[in-house]
Automatic annotation (TrEMBL):
Belongs to the IFRD family. This is Interferon-related developmental regulator N-terminal domain-containing protein. Pfam families: IFRD (PF05004), IFRD_C (PF04836). InterPro entries: ARM-like, ARM-type_fold, IFRD, Interferon-rel_develop_reg_C, Interferon-rel_develop_reg_N. Residues 28-338 form the Interferon-related developmental regulator N-terminal domain. Gene3D superfamilies: Leucine-rich Repeat Variant. Residues 25-34 have a biased composition (Low complexity). It comes from the Eukaryota.
């Protein structure tokens, strides 16, 4: 009886904290959390943060969608502000299932905003746990509800967050090429559905196309040594080429990056090698030669499009910053096609320098930076999974300035039941693969021929 009363009081407190009808109360609670999180270095503060997260988790059971939305916002803020390992250690499964309850079609009558926030929280959870059994559980438990929610096109505002979540959980928790391929196919179906008697084709919006292409390219950047199907690649390159002619600049930029990545991983080189080795005596042996010629023609078209976009004059109402971003990107793509130079990025994180030197690394960095938003710097400084992905070691963790683990961190890493402890070996092995191309396997784009 006493326990039930305690649970009721906890739920009531959570509801009072996150149930708000106006912006001022939201701002007030957010400020209070920020003030708490600005105090660092004591386990008392860690306890307060866990207490706030516990209350937010309790608030996810409330009936009012606005209360759950505020709770999800607080959870995301907490995951961006600090690496919530202790909370994840205790409440991993509970948080995941609460998020999925909001994502699932028809559950709780969730609003599109709530679904988008829940999806983002799942992505934050995946990046926090890193590689290992928990990350794969996130992937396995989430992919079907995300697929079903994407298929429900009642409100497209939720879709970019669902696509980003799908990309992140696959990137972290996908264990084999088939799982990555499955996620990439789900993404394409959002804008290029397989037409059937019960499917109505709806023209996708520019933001939705951008979100799909960006998420798809992010996962493509993890795949190497492909067993390529020429027809699928011809269709995908043709479709992306058509996007370079669209009016929306964000669509053109996303398509340009995806095309540069496709050619960086060696699509045409593969068919060039097969074409040279074929003796051309049967119909099957003619196919590699025909594919090579067709892909060369597509590449020539893409090169001309990129050169034009690199020199595009500003149109009416065109933002100068956006126009310059487009010109710079397509100059880089044109240089890549002509000279083989990939763009190099040097970014300061704290006092440390993070560098990339390929299209795949650049796409991964930009995608994760966009996903984490204000939490990017914190994660890059303290998230071991991202350190492995980008081969980045902050100086404070290096030999010249050894990081002293707190008592809390020591308990986390030494505990035989720790999810982090169990995942460390898998994380290191898997992320070494990431830096070398990460995944080996087959990817095929299920394109609709008459749409391509």
């Amino acid at each position: 009886m006493g326990k039930r009363n305690s649970q009721r009081k906890s739920a009531a407190a959570a509801s009072a904290m996150f149930d708000s009808d106006d912006d001022s109360s939201v701002t007030s609670s957010s400020t209070a959390r920020s003030d708490l999180m600005s105090l660092s270095g004591t386990e008392d503060v860690q306890f307060d943060q866990d207490s706030l997260l516990d209350q937010a988790l309790d608030a996810l059971d409330e009936k009012r969608s606005s209360t759950r939305e505020n709770a999800f916002s607080s959870i995301i803020e907490a995951f961006n502000s600090n690496m919530q390992h202790q909370f994840v250690e205790k409440k991993f499964a509970t948080l995941l299932h609460q998020c999925l309850a909001s994502v699932k079609k028809g559950s709780k009558k969730a609003s599109s905003k709530e679904i988008a926030l829940a999806a983002h929280a799942i992505g934050c959870l995946a990046l926090t746990v890193g590689c290992g059994n928990n990350a794969h559980e996130i992937f396995e438990e989430s992919i079907r509800p995300i697929d079903e929610s994407l298929a429900s096109k009642s409100d497209v505002s939720k879709m970019p967050s669902l696509l980003e979540c799908l990309a992140i959980i696959t990137f972290v928790g996908g264990n084999d090429p088939e799982e990555t391929e499955r996620s990439m196919d789900i993404m394409w179906r959002v804008i290029l559905p397989k037409l059937g008697s019960n499917v109505v084709s709806v023209k996708p919006s520019a933001p939705l196309i951008t979100a799909v292409v960006s998420a798809w390219a992010f996962l493509l950047s993890t795949v190497s040594n492909l067993k390529l199907n020429s027809k699928n690649w011809q269709n995908s390159i043709s479709y992306l080429s058509t996007l370079l002619d669209k009016e929306d600049r964000s669509v053109r930029i996303a398509a340009g990056e995806a095309l540069a990545l496709i050619f960086e991983i060696g699509v045409i080189d593969k068919y060039s090698a097969e074409s040279r080795s074929a003796s051309v005596t049967t119909e099957e042996e003619i196919k590699p030669h025909e594919s090579y010629i067709f892909l060369q023609g597509l590449k020539g078209k893409v090169i001309n499009q990129c050169k034009s976009l690199a020199m595009e004059a500003g149109g009416k109402g065109s933002a100068k910053k956006d126009l310059n971003s487009q010109r710079n990107l397509f100059r880089d793509i044109s240089d890549f096609f002509e000279y083989g130079y990939s763009p190099e990025i040097s970014m300061k994180i704290g006092g440390d320098s993070l560098q990339t030197s390929s299209w795949s690394q650049m796409i991964q960095l930009n995608f994760i930076k966009h996903f984490l938003g204000g939490g990017f710097t914190k994660h890059m400084q303290e998230n071991e999974f991202l350190h492995e992905v980008f081969d980045f070691t902050p100086k404070r963790k290096g030999l010249n300035n050894v990081h002293r683990m707190s008592d809390l961190e020591k308990r986390m890493f030494k505990s035989p039941n720790s999810a982090l402890n169990k995942a460390r070996t898998q994380l290191l092995d898997k992320q070494r693969m990431l830096t070398e191309g990460r995944k080996v396997g087959h990817y095929a784009v299920n394109m609709v021929d008459d749409e391509a």
